[in-house]
Every structure is written in C-alpha cells, then in structure tokens.
Amino acid sequence: MLLDRYQHLFFNSNFKEAATKPGVVAYRGEFILKEGEVADAQGRRGPPAAVLKQAALLAEGDDLKLLSGSLDELQEFPLLAEILGADLKAGAIVVLFTINIPKAFITTVNGATVVFIPLTEGMAWNELIDMVGLEKGDFKGQTSADKVVTVYEALKSEKFKYPESTVEEAMKTTNNAKRITHGAV
Description:
- The protein has about 180 residues and is of the alpha/beta class.
- It has one domain (about 1-35, about 45-170).
- About 20% of the residues lie in helices and about 30% in strands.
- The chain has five helices and seven strands.
- It has helices at about 1-5, 75-85, 125-130, 145-155, 165-170; strands at about 10-20, 25-35, 50-60, 65-70, 95-100, 105-110, 110-120.
- It has a seven-stranded mixed sheet with strand order 1-2-3-4-5-7-6.
- The relative contact order is 0.17.
C-alpha cells in the first residue's frame, strides 16, 4: 500500500485508515517535508524543519489519488515533489493552499494536475470542502476515510479555472505573507 511507504513522514496524525471501498486508504495530519536536526547523542531528532500542514492524502493500492494541504512557502514544493517522486503521476489531484503566493495557478508535474491557491488564514480541509460545494450533510454517517473519498470524488469533476504557470515562474512572484492565526491572547 502506498501510504505505508510514507508512514515515517506522518506527523501529528489525525488518522490513517481504510475506507469502505476495498484497497482505499486515507490519511489526515501533517506530512514531513524536511526532518529536524539530530538533537542528541541517541540520534533523536528535533521537530521537523518543514511540513505540509493540514494534509489529506488518499491512495488506492499503490496509486496516489488525492493530496491536499497547506504550504508555508511555495519554495517547499520541490521537497514534496522529490519525496513523492514517481508516485506523483497522471490521475492524481493535488491542491496545495500556499501562503506566500499572490494568485492561484495550475501546473502539471509528472502528468498530475497540481493546483496552488493562496491562503493566509483558514483551514485547508474547510477550503477544499467549500471549493467543491460540499456541506456537512454530505458527510453524514461517513467514516473519516470515507469523507476524504467524498471530497476526492467531488474534486474529480472540478474545472480549475486558474492560469497555467510553472512552479519556477511562480517562485519569482512570491511574497512575504505569513499565516494569520487567531486565538487566545
């Protein structure tokens, strides 16, 4: 199974479980892009240096079907592309909410459609649900994994109307935006 190969990169996991459809597995949590430095003589590592936050992955057997999450910087995408390697291929839908880009764009990596959308505040999962027009009732009675399947099924028919660009070209337009968080003072 594809997600078993990435198990060591799962961090602050919400769940990794099988969907009701045989051979389909979903994960939500954070996905390590760059390990933390070795912190002591026993080889324990510090916190990861870079993660894909609020990640949602869906795999059917050895095929990546969906990858979504939030990148702090577009410059982290090459780390993600390198980790996924040949698993990032045609048929995969990748939606990355990226903090430091001024406008949305689409690119193709190894045949996979990759959509980058600016997002400085909010939750990637909620934005994904809103993007495809799903509501709370659409998930009623579903397992956590089946909710990811529902979002994937809705995304398959989504027509992303963003300009096409390469990641390299888009990196020239990045800004200094930071994640806006709200909470106790």
